[in-house]
């Protein structure tokens, strides 16, 4: 069994439930969970095996589930969408927060009350731990279930999530602060329980992290491959994307798909990519070279030594990358440039054909690099400026070769 550590990160937490979805499908048994802030809340749901509840919660997330304030005004404030028309409204909102001594998180308390079953957590075979900070004692607190007094687990989960700016509350006469101010990714807390294999789920969140003490731990770090939003951006569409991203990033981490920013399956063998390059006709290779100002030379050598090198230079790739990695990287660049949806699985052939269709429909630029003097076409700055157009032309040439050699 493995242990899973969940980083604090507020509204980004849906990503962690996407990770959990993938782990369930992969048949990976979780023996322990530690977390901070939203990681503690999600961790408690994992301990209770409340997957459906957790997924539905994040799939339909809303600011009103966390903070008791006008949701539209709250959303604008979080996104800093301030202009001359609504600045007075913001001043009134801020004055209200100051008068009530912080944001009212009564809905978050209600959510924890509803979703956390203390008896279930105490009877679970899954280890659970959380981190908070006692402001009254000026010290961090790393707590396992057995360390928490009966009837207080929900309170300490809330204490782990207590951000500055939230309305002041006390627990046992003491004030607490979000655990991210001591350890936002409590790997050591899980390692103390003897776990040697750990999955650390990060959220690209700001917070203090304690150095890992046991250097022999096997740690698989899963982190967002894209933007997961802001700390308090409880937006439904954003959260649904985070669920998908967490799932897909985890599947990629376990080798179920490949790619840098996309999620690709059924990738051809490396030899296939090499063969496609050298099987281009001399005319096609010379045409590709001419586009960037190289009109002479032995075609195969021109392809492998010049064109591939220029491609790496344009895209910022390392020349040590394999031919397959270079081609896939170029395809992913074009996919992003033509706005192909990122958060889904694609088999290689479907991905390639979709990009070809998008490129065929892409508007032609009014100024074509091929009409520039050769000496300018060879300049890296010029090539980088026109790299999208260059890549599209090269892809069409390579695709036409596939049609004749398949």
UniProtKB/TrEMBL annotation:
<dbReference type="GO" id="GO:0016042">
    <property type="term" value="P:lipid catabolic process"/>
</dbReference>
<dbReference type="GO" id="GO:0016787">
    <property type="term" value="F:hydrolase activity"/>
</dbReference>
<feature type="short sequence motif" description="GXSXG">
    <location>
        <begin position="35"/>
        <end position="39"/>
    </location>
</feature>
<keyword id="KW-0442">Lipid degradation</keyword>
<feature type="short sequence motif" description="DGA/G">
    <location>
        <begin position="178"/>
        <end position="180"/>
    </location>
</feature>
<feature type="domain" description="PNPLA">
    <location>
        <begin position="4"/>
        <end position="191"/>
    </location>
</feature>
<feature type="active site" description="Nucleophile">
    <location>
        <position position="37"/>
    </location>
</feature>
<dbReference type="InterPro" id="IPR050301">
    <property type="entry name" value="NTE"/>
</dbReference>
<dbReference type="InterPro" id="IPR002641">
    <property type="entry name" value="PNPLA_dom"/>
</dbReference>
<keyword id="KW-0378">Hydrolase</keyword>
<feature type="active site" description="Proton acceptor">
    <location>
        <position position="178"/>
    </location>
</feature>
<dbReference type="Pfam" id="PF01734">
    <property type="entry name" value="Patatin"/>
</dbReference>
<feature type="short sequence motif" description="GXGXXG">
    <location>
        <begin position="8"/>
        <end position="13"/>
    </location>
</feature>
<protein>
    <submittedName>
        <fullName>Patatin</fullName>
    </submittedName>
</protein>
<keyword id="KW-0443">Lipid metabolism</keyword>
<dbReference type="InterPro" id="IPR016035">
    <property type="entry name" value="Acyl_Trfase/lysoPLipase"/>
</dbReference>
